[in-house]
Each structure stands twice: as structure tokens, then as C-alpha cells.
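Posting this for the archive.
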Amino acid sequence: MEPYVIHAPTVEPVPILVSVPHCGTAFPDELKGQFDADLTTAPDDTDWFVNKLYDFAPHLGMTLVTATYSRWVIDLNRDPQSKPLYTDGRIITGLCPTTTFLGEPLYVDKRTEVTAEETERRLQSYYWPYHHQLQQKLHDLKTTFGKVLLWDCHSIRQYVQTIYKENFPDLILGDADGTSAAPAVIETAYRQLGSGPYSLSHNFPFKGGFITRHYGKPLEHQYALQLEMSKIRYMNDTETLYDETRANAMRALLEKTLMALVELLQPKRTS
């Protein structure tokens, strides 16, 4: 099974690539028995239904790349050298996590680390194939349009005490403190997201993970933005089920935001 799924545009392509690296729930057969089965039946740290939330993207001309395997196998949004994303004391799970966000052991044997050899195997088998797809799609789109935006999609429970002591804002736009995209791209995204009925934060408490920081190269006209959102804004009150009413309201804002970015990025046609 491939570690990614490519959802190709169903209409004329536009210069936006949509990535959902944490929606995967599968575990490879060779690893499944090593994890705590009570946790893997519904891996709680999953960005549940974010791939469904964004399934409109191909109908707008955007390529959508979604992950197959759980982030507990290997986290596609972490530095491959395991460099920490934040140094402010919050608990951040690693490249190959051994606990949940809440500190629960993931493995039957309660291991506290994954060996270097096994980490390298997972990089080659599950991590790099996803990233090679991102890189290839970005290259192709930039070759066609001259500019390209990677929109990296995430969600999180409204409250995770080990990361932040308050409820998260509804939406958090991350651009690595302004380094992953051109000012006009950032301003357009922020303005459109702020036009909805949701609380909005910028680079706090998340500023973008490895994907945003690595692929955002404004001087090369390759931009990257991360959007984190509270699950309660498209799921039910217990953050366990997809809520059509809430999701449809959020989808409308996401579509409006992405289409405004297309208008900004797409070369102007002359008559």
C-alpha cells in the first residue's frame, strides 16, 4: 500500500497543492502487532476527517495529497533529523513517536525510542515517498504557473493540556514567522480566514511544522502555509464524529480563501 493518495484535479489545474499529512489511520502489517491495539483501533492524534473536509480541492483544480499511515508510524510533518519544532517546553511528539500527545505509551513493550535503524527504514518506506510526491507536484506546478502555494492542512482537539493551557483558537495560520510565503500571500490568506465567524490566530501557538518550513521558499516563488483548526469547528462536541453542518460552514470559508489565493497566484490572462 502506498503511503499517500493522490487526488488529481478534475478541472483545469491551478497553482495550489493541498497536503493532509496527518489524516492517515493505517498501520503496516509488519508494525501493527507492536502497537497497543486499544490505541490503534482509533488513533486519537489523527487529524480526523481533514481529508474529507478538503475533498472539494480537486474540483477547484487543486491536487490533493493525503497520507495513508498513522503519524504514529512516522510523522510526515517532523524534521527527518528529529530536530525539535519548538523549544518552549511544550510536549511535541517526535519523528517516530513512542507516546500519544497525552503521554500514553504507544507500544506494547513500552519502548521509549525507536532505533536509528528502524527510523531509517520508516523514512525510506513511508516518509520520503510522501515528500517526493510533494516536491514533484510543486515542481510541476511552478514550472507551469511560475508560482505555487503548498497549503498544509491540520486539526487538533480544542484543548490539549500538554501543549497549551487554554483552548486553541478556531483557526491558526502558520507561516514560520513570515518566512514561508510572500507578504501578499500571507495577507490574503489571513484576511479571508478572518472574514468568517471563527477566532483566528497567526503563528501562535503553531507557526507551521516541517512541511511549511521546508517547502516555503518565497525567493523562489514557492510558498507554503499551514492551517491548524480546532476539531470542534467541523466535528461534533465530543470531537469524535464528522458534523455536516459545521463542516459545510468551514468548507465554504476554506474554498473562499483558497480561491482568493488562486486569483492572487494565477497569471493574469490578457485578451
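The helical segments are 29-32, 37-40, 50-53, 116-145, 183-194, 210-215, 244-265. The chain has one domain: 4-265.
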